[in-house]
Amino acid sequence: MIRIALDAMGGDHAPQAEVEGAVQALSDLPPGFLIQLVGRRTAIEAELARFPSVDRARIEIHDAPDVIRMDEKPLAAIRRKPHSSLAVGLGLQKAGKSDALVSAGNTGAVLVGATLLLGLHDGVERATVATLFPTSDQPVLVLDAGATVDCSPRELVGFAWLGTIYMQDVLGRSNPKIGLLNVGEEDEKGNAATKEAHALLRQASGLHYVGNIEGRDIVAGHHKYGMVDVVVADGFVGNIVLKFYESVARLIVRLVKKEAPTVLQMPEIQRIFKLLDYAEYGGAPLLGVKGVAVICHGSSTPNAFKNAIRVAGQAVTGNLSAHIAAHFARRDSESQA
Amino acid sequence: MIRIALDAMGGDHAPQAEVEGAVQALSDLPPGFLIQLVGRRTAIEAELARFPSVDRARIEIHDAPDVIRMDEKPLAAIRRKPHSSLAVGLGLQKAGKSDALVSAGNTGAVLVGATLLLGLHDGVERATVATLFPTSDQPVLVLDAGATVDCSPRELVGFAWLGTIYMQDVLGRSNPKIGLLNVGEEDEKGNAATKEAHALLRQASGLHYVGNIEGRDIVAGHHKYGMVDVVVADGFVGNIVLKFYESVARLIVRLVKKEAPTVLQMPEIQRIFKLLDYAEYGGAPLLGVKGVAVICHGSSTPNAFKNAIRVAGQAVTGNLSAHIAAHFARRDSESQA
């Protein structure tokens, strides 16, 4: 049995969107999956009552009276609220009673909570939030998407490894291509951290590092290397580019709606907007922690939760966490040898 | 007479696109404008021969036998090639024989060349490349777009002033709103440089600083402040976001072409793509130098050169350089008082 805990109180439309997403997920997932709704029992029960035909044998409710708000300081909130839905959900995983957590709550609190309660794998210096960017081809993983604003060169190399293992285990890409996000492709381009990270990545054996790539190469592909699978950046740049991308898609919808509203009704155009819709990609995994945690947008729809639960399930069945542990342990022992 | 020098050898399609752009610009500009084509005289004459009806009294050719290539190191190239089209064009302005330079050549060489040959205004610590981002509303100025990858907090504040004066003088915006590009709007968000810049910007009197803005707010507007006029960022982030934006527009064209090619023929949709087309906005001014320099994409079309020449002309007639000088001199004397 694979048990996915869902922080039912995290998002802007909690617990309604969360519960509805869980119900949708159960109808898609194989029978061996169970969803653990974590939050205020009465509120969750009230939402569940809207879905009388759902198989209650595949749903657990774990009562958690507290909620960590979006504007709370992550570390203080985690310490002060051990009975929050987030802390209880992570606690289940720590106690071996759950396999993964999905949350649309305070991102910083998920990061800090997972790092403190689950711990980092040996050799991992920083956990990182990884997001999939839609392209006209396969999606591209960009990390870090905002967990760490000032990253050391070694941390950036760690992200390259975490992204590689994730793309192999969860998206089934073999030998994923890595690019370092920079302002030019030449060796001497970039700020201090990217210059040193570029040199370290070029030496790293086992990584399929293609080199520096530019902003235009993320979704359009590089003129020599084509599309990369993983884009490494510090959390400052990654977060800004991620949020910018989301807004550009919305800008274009707004422009089309204004200038040519009938176009938005065309099935071909709806297919494009679906392709560019983050909700389809199912949340951002937090990589490097001992376990599985997937972070969703605060504004996630039921469909987004459904997809995030699927991604969390793939991380569990793909043995992502164990593979990360094994890789970093090997790397550690090699660097000490 | 207003004299705009055009580096005729800078772009990927030189001198053809440059000469054609100059011819187009002359038919739009008032009679008081003259264009100085700088580069290899015979190549320029050969291109000009294609336009027998152009008024040659409004075109000067300044012979420059050398060209600085895209892959040359800027500082070494400027020093080694005093007879390059770029150095000759800037030399005309320094000697008082020209009012502005437009170039699609090596961006680093334009930056270094203009800084060395024209000099910076007193009190300006760094020249900055400013680019206009299309939005569904008015365009937004983002600076720095790649001149300086690691910016000090004081330099970021300087960019806010340069952007303010540019938007007033050239785009006629009164009291332009400034946002600092960051990963969250709270005071404590960001890396070391943005945190300190945010504090300095809040104290700056005379600037219309609204606060930290996020990636999504650049083209979509901030939920409280609405659209800003100027976005301040270091050149690393600014350059990556700029190139990313260009590529997203191309990605969407590619997707539409694949899924619904007839849609691209609709005049309403063509209007949208024209709105999102950088070429319409006419190049990126280099702000802070004593004079006027406008940087174009290497791949600029004749239309892009025409618009860049227009922007350079507006900077001259708006007295941009003198206003920047006056502002920074006043700021300097106030900080010494």
Give a summary of the structure in a few sentences:
The structure is a homodimer of 337-residue chains. The first copy, chain A, is of the alpha/beta class.
Task: Tally the structural domains of chain A.
Answer: 2
Strand coverage percent of chain A: 15-25%
CA(first)-CA(last) distance of chain A: 40 Å
Total helices of chain A: the number is 12
What characteristic shape of chain A results from the CA principal axes?
A: globular
SSE succession of chain A: EHEHEHHEHEEHEHEHEHHEEHH
- For this structure, what is the CATH class of the largest domain in chain A? Alpha Beta
Helical coverage of chain A, percent range: 40-55%
Low-confidence stretches of chain A: none
Report on the structure:
The structure is a homodimer of 337-residue chains. The relative contact order of chain A is 0.16. Chain A has 337 residues and is of the alpha/beta class. Chain A has 2 domains: 2-124 and 288-336, Isopropylmalate Dehydrogenase (3-Layer(aba) Sandwich), CATH 3.40.718; 129-275, Isopropylmalate Dehydrogenase (3-Layer(aba) Sandwich), CATH 3.40.718. In chain A, helix 2 (41-48) links the parallel strand 2 (33-39) and strand 3. Chain A starts with a strand and ends with a helix. The model of chain A has no long low-confidence stretch (mean pLDDT 93). In chain A, 44% of the residues lie in helices and 16% in strands. Chain A is built from 12 helices and 11 strands. At the A-B interface, helix 8, helix 9 and helix 10 of A face helix 8, helix 9 and helix 10 of B.
